[in-house]
C-alpha cells in the first residue's frame, strides 16, 4: 500500500479525477517520502527504535511533528527516515517504493532529490549509495509498467547539505553519475545563514561542466537567498522560491484595477521563466508563507500564477505533509477555483523546467497535453 489513498475529494467540479491526470514532479525528497510500513520493517531489521511500530500511528506522528511552523523543527523528522536508509538494501527498497508511489499518483516524470552524504553511517561509499538508489528507481519503473499504469521516468537530483562544506565532493559525485541516472544538482538543509556562495566551488565546477542546478531558496530565507541562488549558483529553478512574493508590491485598487509593481528580482524571475517549485502544504507547515497567513487561501501561489510566473506544484515531502501531487492540486483547485486548464498549465510549466534534453521535454509536454485532452473529453 502506498502512503496515501486518493478518494472522491480529488475530483474537480466537472467530474475529472485528478488522480488520473498525468503529472510532473520536480521537488520531491526521497527521505521525505517513505511509507510508514517500510520504515517499521527496515527499522526492525537494523534494531532502530521508533516512536510507534503501528503504521497509521507512525504516519500521524510524522504529520504532527512536521506541523510546527518551523523549518528547523520540520527537518528533525528526517533523523528517523535517514536512519533506515543507511544500507544498500534500505536505499533500494525506499527508492523502489518511492517510484511506485509516483506511478500511483499519476506522475509520468519525476525528479527525486536526496543527499548521499547523509547515508554513509553503515559503510556505504557515496557512489555505492547513488548506485543503490538507481537500482531501486529502475525496479520501481519496471513495477509501474507491469502494473499497467502510465510509464514513469525518474531522475536523481543529488543534493549537497549547505551547512556541511563547500559541496565540491558532491558536485563531483553528481557529474560521475550524470549518464547513470543523475540529472541535476541541488543544495538542501538550513537555508538562513548558509547562502549558496558558501558552495561556490561546487557551483563553479557544475557550471563549467554544463550541469543543471536547482537551489532551495526563498523558503526559510528571503530575497537575498534567491539572489544568491541565481547569481552564485546559476540556478535554473528555485526550490520553493515562494518568498519571491516579497518583491511584489500591491497597491490600492483604483478604477483600472489593483496596481501591482514587481521589483527587479521578481521581474527577472518572471521574465526568464525561472520555475518556482512551490509546495503548498509544506510551505504552510514550515512557516514559509507566514507573512501572508496560515491557510491555503493565503498562499501567494495564485498571486504568482495570475502575474505570469512559472509556477509548478510539488509535494516536497510526501510523508511529512501526508500528501501527493493529486492532493496538492485538489487543495489549490478548491482554494482558488482552478479548473482542468489551470492544472494542465502547472504540469506544462513543470515539463518545460525539467532537467531533460529539449527533445525529451517536448515529448513530455505532448504526453501531458494528450492526457489532459483525454480527461477533458
Number of separate domains: 1
Largest sheet: 8 strands, parallel
Calculate the terminal CA-CA distance, rounded to whole Å. Answer: 31 Å
CATH superfamily: Metal-dependent hydrolases
- Gross morphology is globular
Give the neighbour order of strands across the main sheet: 1-2-3-4-5-6-9-10
Count of DSSP helices? Answer: 15
Strand content: 15-25%
Helical amount among residues, as a percent range? 40-55%
| Low-pLDDT residue spans | 1-8
CATH class: Alpha Beta
What does this structure look like?
Its EC number is 3.5.4.4. Belongs to the metallo-dependent hydrolases superfamily. Adenosine and AMP deaminases family. The chain has helices at residues 36-46, 55-66, 71-75, 78-83, 88-104, 126-146, 168-176, 200-208, 223-231, 264-271, 280-286, 301-306, 325-336, 340-353, 358-376; strands at residues 23-29, 107-114, 153-161, 182-188, 213-217, 237-240, 248-254, 257-262, 275-278, 311-313. The protein has 377 residues and is an alpha/beta fold. It has a single domain (13-364), classed as TIM Barrel, CATH 3.20.20.
